[in-house]
Design brief:
Layout: H1 45-57, H2 61-73, H3 77-90, H4 98-112, H5 118-133, H6 139-156, H7 188-192, H8 197-204, H9 214-225, H10 233-239
Helix pairs in contact: 1-2, 1-3, 1-5, 2-3, 2-5, 3-4, 3-5, 4-5
Length: 276
Amino acid sequence: MDEDRQATFGSDGSLDTETPPEAREGTTDWGEPKGDGETDGGYNRYDVSSLLQKAVRRSDEEVAAWAAWELARSGYAWNLWDRLHLYVVEDLRAGQDVALLVERYETLATERWDPQSWKGRLCAIHAALACARAQSSREASNADEFFRNAAAARAEVRGTDEDPAVDFPVADLDPDGPYDVIFDKHTAEGSRRDRGEGFFKRFGARVGPEGEDAQSARWQRLNMALSDVEYDEAELDHAVEPVDPEHRWEDPVTFEDEGGDGGADRSESGADGGGS
């Protein structure tokens, strides 16, 4: 399981799921032979690896830079880059560009240069500093754990009259429920309800809460005007109206013929109208 990846404590018999060989060759800074899992500075590389991730998570730039440098110079570059890549998916707010930077720094350090060399160590420091300066968040990890707990809670009461202690944010996806708008031509239920391009354009393709910019809205209105489905002005306006941030899924259907496309459909066969 993914959760086991961090259950690595050292070279004293603890579980180690990371398989690359130990960088034992050479001596410590004071000339003593290095032990298994020991860094040049005499630290346990598991401890330094954990320190690296905690430092970038807490935005401690200096400690993160040192930990990256210590791992890189000691022959544990693979551990360093594995930990930084784990950070960008476990502890980083989604959308941060640093995820791409880490990949680039690793390529430079490991494919163009020796990861233990001066250039390789600079790449390690750069990557650690970039991560420490990024916006940390446990949102993905917290979401994953919550969804797993909710799945277990739902399964526990399956077949009984009890409600789960916690549930998925969408509960049950039923037509005519809170998420009715998803049942358009891209789903079997939507097709059964004759919700074709007209329904999708008016409801399913709306964005928010920022809404379309002026150019995108202009293109959407032109596409609808040129479509085989006829739309009135109110329908054109609604299609590009921003979604209400307080009621993202409430999309009041006030147009004629709620179930179908509304208006006259001159020829809907072959009209795709974009993605789902």
